[in-house]
Amino acid sequence: METEILIAHDLHKSFSSQPAVRGISFSIAQGEIFGLLGPNGAGKSTTISMLAGLIPPTSGSIEIDGLDLRSHPNEVKARLGLVPQDLALYPTLSAWDNLAFFAQIYGLRGRVLKQRVTMALEMVQLLDRAKEPVRNYSGGMKRRVNLAAGLLHQPKILFLDEPTVGVDPQSRNAIFESIEALNRQGLTVIYTTHYMEEAERLCQRVAIIDHGQIIAQDTPANLIRSLGAGVIRMGILDGQIQEVQRQSAQLASISSIVQRDHLLDIQSQDTQMALIQVLDITNRLNAKVTSLEILDASLETVFLNLTGKSIRD
Question: Any idea what the CATH number is for the domain that residue 101 is in?
Answer without folding.
Answer: 3.40.50.300
